[in-house]
Fold these 2 entries.
Entry 1:
Amino acid sequence: MGAPGIPRSLVASLIPRPVSVTQGDGVFVLDAATAVDAPAALRGVAAWLQGALRPATGLQIAAGVGGNVVLLTEPGLAAEGFELTVTPAEVRIAGGSAAGVFYGCQALLGLLPPAIHRRAPVAGIRWQIPTGTVHDAPRFGWRGVMLDVARHFLPKREVFRFLDLMAMHRLNMLHLHLTDDQGWRLEIRRYPRLTEIGAWRRETQVGAGPDAPGNGRPHGGFYSQDDIREIVAYAAERFITVVPEIESPGHVQAALAAYPQLGVSGGNLEVFTRWGINYNVLNMAETTVRFFTDVLNEVMDLFPSPYIGVGGDECPKDQWILDPRTQQRIAELGLADEEELQSWFIRRLNDHLRSAGRSLFGWDEILEGGGAPGATVASWRGTAGAVAAARSGCDVVSCPDDQAYLDYRQSDSPREPIPVSVVLTLRDVYHFDPVPAQLTAAEAEHVLGGQGNIWTEHMDSPRTVDYFAFPRLCALAEALWSAKGGDFEDFDRRLQLHLARLDALGVEYRRAAGPLPWQQRPGVPGRPETQDQRAAHIAALVANIALPADFASGS
Amino acid sequence: MGAPGIPRSLVASLIPRPVSVTQGDGVFVLDAATAVDAPAALRGVAAWLQGALRPATGLQIAAGVGGNVVLLTEPGLAAEGFELTVTPAEVRIAGGSAAGVFYGCQALLGLLPPAIHRRAPVAGIRWQIPTGTVHDAPRFGWRGVMLDVARHFLPKREVFRFLDLMAMHRLNMLHLHLTDDQGWRLEIRRYPRLTEIGAWRRETQVGAGPDAPGNGRPHGGFYSQDDIREIVAYAAERFITVVPEIESPGHVQAALAAYPQLGVSGGNLEVFTRWGINYNVLNMAETTVRFFTDVLNEVMDLFPSPYIGVGGDECPKDQWILDPRTQQRIAELGLADEEELQSWFIRRLNDHLRSAGRSLFGWDEILEGGGAPGATVASWRGTAGAVAAARSGCDVVSCPDDQAYLDYRQSDSPREPIPVSVVLTLRDVYHFDPVPAQLTAAEAEHVLGGQGNIWTEHMDSPRTVDYFAFPRLCALAEALWSAKGGDFEDFDRRLQLHLARLDALGVEYRRAAGPLPWQQRPGVPGRPETQDQRAAHIAALVANIALPADFASGS
């Protein structure tokens, strides 16, 4: 990029950065005669493109043979790759698959003025596209985001909007964190109390730390099964897989509030109103396994994703240690300790998912106490989990907290709202590499890609999510799509035009100068850490990761 | 409605209630062969219909001559009226204008399963429309909503969504309350501090009353001029006029914070963080008139609306009484008192708007102290303003607080969130009649229609707006569209299917049983009034309304 002779007008706007670009001197102009020509298999992509071009231009772009915007698949291209060729007479988008064609369409939007993203006709703009070619293909197959709708519920329209923004950035995996201590967001027909009771909490802690006050205000919401089908179908039209996550055996207090018999104590609990790791976990009775496999059956009916998330992170063992029934269970099952008990539970879910043809997806804690054969690991505690999993033959999605946690503070300014952990700048995210340096090439094959994680304890509205997610998600998208070794200064230049697109879309991204006055949260405590504090904290968390070398071959 | 022999399947879903309906035995089925046939003048409506039918059905509905969904205008019909005829072979929508055709399209959606409103393909549904005819036309030309984006800012995507919901209910006027003490939401190029300073406040009062605490959290946001153009164009595609409102000479503290020289004291003020009537008002210097006419010039460039709102309500005269400069001004201008001074200011704005070919739109307080020739009055303090204005020949938009204020409490349950004023039930809104009973037929000609007012002091998110607005806005839409004397029980039956539409759209309406747990605001003080308390309160407010009988003929 930035090679001499390539005018900025073409390359300036492209995020992610393409494999190659050439530019001619002419333009293709969108007008009333523009029509999309696509084979039957690409009709959905053509309809999406027609829909994307219509609002701002006001043009009724038709579809039909002989159209001058030609969509086609070309077997020689990488599966998600594309080749976009613009001449004065024609736009040609060839993809290695329908997804590749779709990404070529997104690149086409990236060559139009930013106002193309407005939702009603814009006067005084000539809708022209520079002639030339763009060739592109992604580095990784898993280009994801984890969105936590459990801590703060997002209405489904905001999920649609988030999916649109993901598609614009050619991200293809939405890891939807649907349940946690603070809320259960998914209707389960067999267990209606999960949402009747679990979908709302009495109040919410404001800020971090044990002394942070509650706000006295109920918070809640959930997705009906029809809503979920709609979200999944909407995502599929944008070539995004929605990976659902039902947390277990920790982060379950919302479920315990609904069904106390799932807990160790069996006592009444309310949906958790505090943040942080919670000691209330599932009991390991057979009936509890059955409850969760019932839930996963409905989840599998709703989500066609090959991956089904079961959580597995941050499950304190204290209640199990103290509970005679659990100790007896450990003995009956012939297990060594509580770590093996968690592993046993995860393996039970893993068996259930595998028998239904799905793969278990879990946080890197599932490697502790024995792991689960064939599981895919979301490695979050730095890179230790990714290294251990890849070396033992497990597939890995990298989301190391210090490179991909989009709830971490964006600068060390005291004006940052509710600052959490270490500083994770736009530049840091841009340099995120999902493949840990210590892996061999063969081991690195197990790294499917990476994802940014948006934990929403401190994001209580879609507007706040915008502030934390953007523009860091733009940098993350390029880190996951483009070849290694991108130049941040070049990215930052291209970002300027890209921000005009986000403006047109109404995205309330963080400005380079810091938060706008109304994006600040004065006086609300965060929990900032230094790099050393975080490193010590994570080192303590990863001490248990250890796997047998031949682990992945087991079943 | 409800006549014997008309199956509920057809009529059950229609809100507003049509003039007449007949139903046959057959169905028209949407399928891959469905195409819209529309003359050039209706291409925009056709495109909207294609766009509305595509997401849920997944059908690529084409446009072209010979299509089996025929749109046309028919001069014999009322301007906004339509005739929808469905046979097994064809759907025919004739309108008195493009707007009428558009409302016919909305009625067509009302004959399809509620899932038509979902945004991605829904499996297992046959998209069929019962055969028959629907003839309909509105009672009033002004079917509006006032949306207060000053007290709590709504991101533009939420304004688009609100416009979609208005269009679905055949509402055609969005009165956008853009400025107030607590925020200025519109970019003005000439006076950038209006948004730099005025678009956010330090914190927000939570609940009503002098003892209600502040929340310590900044709130802000504004629409760029490009955003406004987009909102106006988006509304126009849905046959909705956006009537902007720039408050003056009271409700201006956000402007005073930005430009203290506009105030009486000239001292520094912050954007107001409290609710209620505010004593800080504009000074009446010539430079202040000039400032506001400059602002109105930019407003007129952005908003093609024939009506331009200038506010005029709730302007306490205390500062003017105490201020020697203001008293001197009253003497210089030869005015009797402060009421006449306010009237003089409003007349200056009126002259400015009229010379630009627009009409001033103001709250019924503009009738005090002399009124403004040719102005249109939004009558809110009961019906007194509507009666006085109509009798003096002014046009009136009725929005009596006790029939059309959608921030008023929906029941007398203590569970209602932040209960304000009197109870205004769904039934009450349904029986809203914009024409006060005491007007003669000739006087009633001046009543253009009515609107519901959504004041957002206590609605701090789009989710809360949903709770207060729906389903009361459905009842209001029928009150403004349909013939007088509707039967609430019949409406309530039809509403059940309509609520399924709102569910499909994700609207978080109030349930008949009351608020969901997370829609409640326990412990937050409201200001409920009895009917007697409200009547006394309003009577005191209307004491000043008096106009010369020949007022409207003046210029």
Entry 2:
Amino acid sequence: MDHGAALLTIFIAFVAAIIGGEIAMRLKMPSVVGQIIAGVVVGKSVLNWVSIDTTPILFELGELGAAFLLFSVGLETPFDKIKQVGREALVVAVLGVIVPFIVGFAWAHFAGFPNNQAAFVAAAFIATSAGITAKILQELGVIDQKYSQVILGAAVIDDVLAMLVLSVVSAVSTGETVNFASIAIVIVQSLAFIFLMSTLGRKIAKSRGSRILDKPLSPLSPWSLSIALCIGVAVLANKLGLAAIIGAFLVGMVLAETDYKEWIHEKVIDLNEFIVPFFFISAGLNVDIEAFRSLDALGQLLLVSTLAVVGKFVGAFLGASQNRRVVGIGMVPRGEVGIIIAGLGFQFKVIGKDIYSLLVGMSLLTSIVAAPILKALVKKDGSDEQT
Amino acid sequence: MDHGAALLTIFIAFVAAIIGGEIAMRLKMPSVVGQIIAGVVVGKSVLNWVSIDTTPILFELGELGAAFLLFSVGLETPFDKIKQVGREALVVAVLGVIVPFIVGFAWAHFAGFPNNQAAFVAAAFIATSAGITAKILQELGVIDQKYSQVILGAAVIDDVLAMLVLSVVSAVSTGETVNFASIAIVIVQSLAFIFLMSTLGRKIAKSRGSRILDKPLSPLSPWSLSIALCIGVAVLANKLGLAAIIGAFLVGMVLAETDYKEWIHEKVIDLNEFIVPFFFISAGLNVDIEAFRSLDALGQLLLVSTLAVVGKFVGAFLGASQNRRVVGIGMVPRGEVGIIIAGLGFQFKVIGKDIYSLLVGMSLLTSIVAAPILKALVKKDGSDEQT
């Protein structure tokens, strides 16, 4: 009888997402491009119909959406395949972090920013958004290709590296002493978490997983348990300093070892149809076009975005051993990870509103630009003969 | 890398719901009882792990959950059957509103409350929560029984009547002149909305619905469109002063006329497994057990709840022509509707915190008490021979 405000916001955002996604697909682009742009359009930049500041629900649905998206991708990703490409993914991740960091730092340095600001800019340059790339690969139906495994594996490693860099940069930029011991503990925890999930978790899933999912708890459906696991491990990953989606991805991979793999996958796809669009919409909602009204600011945005694309592409390209262009462009989208890093810098008062807007704009632009190129390259290079 | 608070809250609430639901089902009770109680347990009354005041996300997910629940029930409810029982549902609704209103008013009057407070208490006595009853009927697999149609039809009519009573009571209690013209307009709008949905909407769905859902918009799935319709019409119902869930229910009934009926139903069930528990959990979160620590207050709660159960049961029982006990008890749960009315009274400063807590407690207690009785009666009386 009241309380309709949240429902209305959710309705507007959802409809905007399906319209945006539809237009993008008719233009032969991945739907995420349209959904992100739809977020920009209904947000404060253009129509101002919904604002993420007053309606955190969209952001929270977006977080859930990202988690369930990576969960579904995890379900499609066999451990053995990821293991095969482990070494290559590591090299892609490391070079894909080092090169853009240097490029970002160099740009900021020559643009006259003090070192602590330049370090934050560089940090925002490094982390790939697994979500955006994963969605495109899923839409193209190529998650099971080798290059997809390389990209996803690298995106996970990338997140650990980004966390490392961010810890150092945050400490340095805010003038604290870098506490290497505590950083080391966090890193070890994260690696132990990923290691345990991919060994012990997988073993349990393989030997008893199906029984754990179906035996117990009479009517408690395996699907409910899977949802609880997905969110729970996402929360745990978050507590360890990793992106929540990494946890969700690992749970998906673990559950892929059970007999319920196909069954859960069907269900999560039904859920994702509702919840994933909020992830892309809320990414778009973060943008404030106002910040790029001046020709100067717009030029800066284009320059920074170009550098971010080139830096990541070159790093990942050099690290890859096959389908190098696909892997290179697949690592380009920064999406929500760049936005989160920029947000931290703004929150610590290291960077101002202008650089914040610039980094948010860059994060989205890299995603919007990379998406159609990735799609085209997958169609061209991504054939089976090369994998 | 941050923002984990909402995810953690969602995780706790979801796990509490599945554990509560599981315990209830092992005790041969409907799962909703366990889920509501789980909400009380994790809420401020006991563990204080989650609070609906600081985390509106649970409440908003709960609203969505209620909408999708009624949407799924609508999909299982053929129009023709509801039409057959239309007259009986009307009588059940009217008597089921009049009797509890009189009982509630009488109690409040003799308990010494002034008339404006007594009117609000009486208003909180009248409206049945379609959600709770619907979930129980769905769990028992008897949505297609005639008595279920009577209950659901009556719950919809009931909501229109509750809106009417609430408009009058609000105006009177806050000392405004009752503007019968504007109330009449709202009522006519609501009735026109329900009428149009069940005639025009249905005709469109029957003649072109399937084509509308599949033809257009190449990859835009019919499932996305159904979600958008469900939320959109729920918002519209809300704007017209009806409960959002009534709109969602009607959309479900309309889409049940298309060829996609089964297909959409499967998908919404997958979604509901995730989202519906938040509806029941957030109902439980509203309770503050603190208010019933004194023996006096507890006695009052039990008395009021008993009157609320008896009043509704007698009214609906008298109105029904078959399976009268099932219909009578099926109308008893007040759930979220009673809570919303109590909240309005508190917001208008007509009733104080104590009566507010009393009405919230009554709303939940009626639901918790009615659920197992309804289940038992359905098993006993609800056989096919009587329908």
